Amino acid sequence: MKEQEKKTVEMPGSMVPVLEIDGRMQIPQSMAIARYLAREFGYHGKNNIDMARIDYISDSFFDIMDDYMRMYHDRDGRMMWDRMSDMRQRYTDLDGRMSNMGYDMSSDMRPDMWSDMRSDMRSDMRSDMRTEMQTGMQSGMQPGMRSDFTSGLSSDMGPGSYSGSYSDSFNEGVMYERRRRRGRAEICRLLFALADIPYTDKRIDFSKWDSMKNKMPCCMLPILEIDRKIQVPQSMTISRYLANEFGFHGSNNIEKAKIESITDCLYDVFDNYMRMFYDRNGRKVKRFSSDMRGKYTENQSESRTNYLETCNRVLPYLENCLQSKENSGQYFTGDKIKLCDLMCYSALENPLIENPSLLNDFPKLRNLRQQVAANPKVLSYLKSRNETDC
């Protein structure tokens, strides 16, 4: 474990897994790595819409896995056997995720059944992974896989060329989100604003949400409805789709991986912040203090600890990304605003309301957010927002 901790500290953002490409570039964030490899090896969508469909399904299953992992492991991957008494509430959260995906799980599962389930899941996963690896090695390079991927090292201790313009002639968009809420859809609204693309911002009252929920993909918000015929859930899937569509993503696979990795890091900060104050349906948790600077309950204190640990891990890494020799521009990947730069503004907005000194030790991040906010199109949008949104 000590060797693992040492190697983890040496990794980007002190996080694992990390994919090292050709011995010169390291990409953290498991889902950013997975999307990079899927594009590189020909297992992603053939166009922007197709990729969005694949992404939202993948992101939905990741949500399930993430909730499951939170039951057993701390942020450093250590087992938390002392948390078994806390399993029932965590199972309820996971049960909600699974039910939203169409699975029916028994609500009276006993906590003592978790050990057997964990063992079975790990055994099944290992067996499936061995089968997949053997099949892949026997079949060799599959059609569509790129041959310019020279050397990859995927590290659980501790980024081939890709290009494409995915314009699908985006004509009409409707964004569904909860009433008077910025939340997880705000990054999508910023993309629309920066692209100067009109769309319908449709807000749903909580009083109507319960009756509408089962009609929505994955029973969640936000949802982007494209040209009145395709509905895409998952805020980060939507944001990647819009970034591709509007030209705010990378010009090749490596650049896309960088942008998505940084974006996912910022989403970690945002997601852990939101978990302190809201349930999975977006309702403010009543047991929490209405004053964000007030006292915290025991459950909220745990969520806050996770949030602060994430900030301490992610923010120094992102500051270093802006200071790196490879980056000569004012934004994360050069002189043009990309998805990750907008995410830096959006994800840290509410945390900075609670703690205005959050970025005092990170001048590059602070300056980047100021540059994004000063963009005329972004500035116009920010001025037009309802100040009561949060």
TrEMBL record:
Membrane-spanning intervals of the chain: none
Keywords, ordered alphabetically: Eye lens protein
The GST C-terminal domain covers: 252-390
* GO terms classed as biological process: glutathione metabolic process
GO MF terms here are: glutathione transferase activity; structural constituent of eye lens
User: A Pfam family matched by this chain, by name?
Assistant: GST_C_3
Which PROSITE patterns has this protein been placed in?
GST_CTER, GST_NTER
Reading the lineage from the top rank, the first entry is: Eukaryota
Q: Where is the GST N-terminal domain?
A: 1-45, 172-250
Family indicated by similarity: Belongs to the GST superfamily.
Name of the featured protein: S-crystallin 3-like
Q: Which organism is it from?
A: Octopus vulgaris (Common octopus)
